[in-house]
């Protein structure tokens, strides 16, 4: 049986608390009426700011929507002021943790060693890492695939067994008017999937695409991705539902194949 089509949304820090709460309520109502989501054919997760997580958990209670965190501490509980541990996130019901986003790497100096420690911390706590990987400069697709697979291996080094969601986000496409070309995306995502398939400890893992992803893209990518990771295009709940509809159509196509 094919797995569900995955759609993730990261709100970054665009929304204030009240705006985020209103968005959660709107999306919760809409997805509660979306058959593919309620049936499990499409899996939706939402990643708000740390302070917005409790409100998101409340809003999506009783729906299949899962909630994630935009980061996670690489350290256990202890004298690490300002950090939020994976164990505490898991305790309140967080299911996913975004790790290694290009902005964390660029703005906060996170290395592959730091990312690997955060992946390990999440997996140890039973949280699924949403591991962001992608080349910084625009490269030929084959070169981008090689660089991204190398990054994947570095970011998974010494991590405990468990599935991950790998979000391929070419840095040069983040915030751009258009996503990366379809042929480029498919070559890299196929390489990432092959790399994961070669790792028995990563059974059940998925590969999704982010980087100016929005309505219409999933239809072009088809089976070459397991879903999409949305940013600003999901700020409009109507656009998010459009992507969920496209995910539903893809899931139905896979089921009938």
From TrEMBL:
- Name the top EC class: isomerase
**SUPFAM superfamilies per the UniProt record, alphabetical:** Triosephosphate isomerase (TIM)
The annotated pathway is: Carbohydrate degradation; glycolysis; D-glyceraldehyde 3-phosphate from glycerone phosphate: step 1/1; Carbohydrate biosynthesis; gluconeogenesis
Q: Which UniProt keywords apply?
A: Cytoplasm, Gluconeogenesis, Glycolysis, Isomerase
Q: Does the keyword Cytoplasm apply?
A: yes
* A single MF term (Gene Ontology): isomerase activity
Any idea of its EC number? Answer: 5.3.1.1
- The reply on keyword Isomerase is yes
According to its UniProt record, where is this protein located? Answer: Cytoplasm
Share what the entry says about its subunit structure, partners included: Homodimer.
* Descriptive protein name: Triosephosphate isomerase
Species of the source: Microbacterium salsuginis
């Amino acid at each position: 049986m094919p797995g569900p089509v995955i759609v993730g949304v990261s709100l970054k820090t665009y929304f204030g608390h009240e705006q985020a709460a209103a968005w959660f309520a709107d999306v919760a109502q809409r997805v509660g009426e979306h058959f593919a989501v309620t049936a499990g054919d499409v899996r939706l997760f939402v990643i708000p700011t740390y302070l917005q997580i409790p409100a998101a958990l409340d809003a999506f209670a009783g729906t299949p929507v899962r909630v994630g965190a935009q980061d996670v501490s690489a350290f256990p509980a202890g004298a690490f002021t300002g950090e939020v541990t994976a164990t505490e996130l898991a305790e309140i019901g967080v299911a996913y943790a975004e790790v290694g986003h290009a902005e964390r790497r660029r703005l906060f100096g996170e290395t592959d060693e730091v990312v690997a420690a955060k992946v390990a911390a999440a997996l140890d706590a039973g949280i699924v890492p949403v591991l962001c990987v992608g080349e910084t400069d625009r490269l030929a697709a084959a070169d981008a695939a090689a660089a991204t697979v190398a990054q994947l291996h570095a970011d998974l080094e010494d991590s405990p067994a468990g599935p991950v969601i790998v979000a391929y986000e070419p840095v040069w496409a983040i915030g751009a008017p258009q996503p990366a070309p379809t042929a480029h995306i498919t070559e890299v995502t196929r390489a990432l999937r092959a790399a994961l398939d070669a790792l028995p400890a990563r059974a059940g893992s998925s590969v999704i695409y982010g980087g100016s992803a929005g309505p219409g893209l999933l239809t072009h990518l088809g089976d070459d991705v397991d879903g999409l990771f949305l940013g600003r295009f999901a700020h409009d709940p109507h656009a998010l539902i459009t992507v969920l509809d496209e995910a539903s159509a893809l899931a139905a196509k896979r089921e009938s194949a």
